[in-house]
Each structure stands twice: as structure tokens, then as C-alpha cells.
Design brief:
Layout: E1 12-17, H1 22-26, H2 37-53, E2 59-63, H3 67-76, E3 81-82, H4 99-105, H5 107-115, H6 128-140, E4 148-153, H7 155-166, E5 182-187, E6 190-195
Parallel strand pairs: 1-4, 2-3, 2-4
Antiparallel strand pairs: 1-5, 5-6
Amino acid sequence: MLINVKEKREKIVYISRHGQSEMNVKDIIGGNGYLSPSGVEYSEKLGDYIANNIDTENTRFVTSSMNRTRQTAMLAGVSPEQNEDLDEIDAGDFDGLSYGEVKCRFPSEYEARKDDKLNYRYPNGESYVDLLKRTRLALNSVDFENCDNFLIIHQAVARCLIAIMLGLSDDKVPQMEIPLHTVIKIQGSEITYQKLL
Ligand code: F6P
């Protein structure tokens, strides 16, 4: 009798922020620009990591709809799906300003965010509470049953996804450390970090 031994391991969710962007270099909030030279270098290293570690036939690659995640995937040599529910937190009227400019020009907004980063909503933009709702929608489209998933996304959205997947409380979300140039691997309740650059 033939027994079908189907692999039953828990599926893996890999998360990487996009490579360093032009906006990261200038400490700018949001924007929709492209990668810095260091971000390009990371994306190429990410391609090597994927080639050596990932079963690409059985992995679904997904990016946000933003230029910096799509460029990272392209340089890493993968053809992702796009999901705009994975786009970075919408900074509304402050999109494209630096943190320093916000502090200088809108001190009360700056302080309000510092005091309650979870609930603070950017003028005409989103709060982390809003983003948690949006990322729950994105998670509904992640296939945890049939394949591994590799998400190339952004800092705030990665914080939300990881908190939801690991069952962390919402108040931990806005301060969570999501290093650049690092592959984060989540399998069940285990999370590991591998810095590539
Ligand atoms: O600085 C990079 C970035 O992805 C911004 O685009 C975004 O607004 C920010 O991180 C989110 O992090 P924080 O909520 O800590 O400002």
C-alpha cells in the first residue's frame, strides 16, 4: 500500500523591509521613491539568500504596491504579487517631510505622536490602530495552508503583521524593532532574524 506522506510542517512567513531607500537616508516620512546604493546592494544579497535558502516553487512572494518594495523584489530576482494593503502607514499631510521638519513646523503634532504613537492619526492619514486593521485584511490573503510566504514590505506594516501573527498586544506595536537589511523568519510562534548587510 502506498502511503502519501504529505509534509505537515508549519508554513513559514519571511518578512523583509525593502532595501534602504532614498527617503531612509534623508530621514523622510513616507514618500514613494527608490532605493539608495546600499538598498540596491541589500536587494542583490537578498537574491542570493533566496536562491540558497528558499524553496521558490512553493513560496508566494508579495510586495506592497510601492516603488521601493517592488524594486527590492526585482533586484532580488523574484516576481511578486502586489498587495496595497501592505503599503506603508499613510502619513497624510506629513508624507515627504522629515521627522525634524515635523518637529519644527508642527510641534504639537510631533508631541501628540510621541505621547501616544499607537492612537495618533496623521492629519489626513493613518494611525497604527488604522494600520492594524488594514494589515489584518492583508493577512487574510496570506496562504498559510499550502505554501510559504515571503513578504517584502515596510517598517510600520511589518510591526503590525508580526504583532498579529505572534499575538502581541497592540501597545507593543509602534516601538517594535524592525531592522533594515534583515530577513525575519516566522514559523509558528518562533521568530528569527538574519542580518544580510
Ligand atoms: O522611516 C521609514 C518608514 O517606513 C516611514 O516611511 C514610516 O512613516 C515610518 O518608517 C514608520 O515608522 P514610525 O512609525 O516609527 O515613524
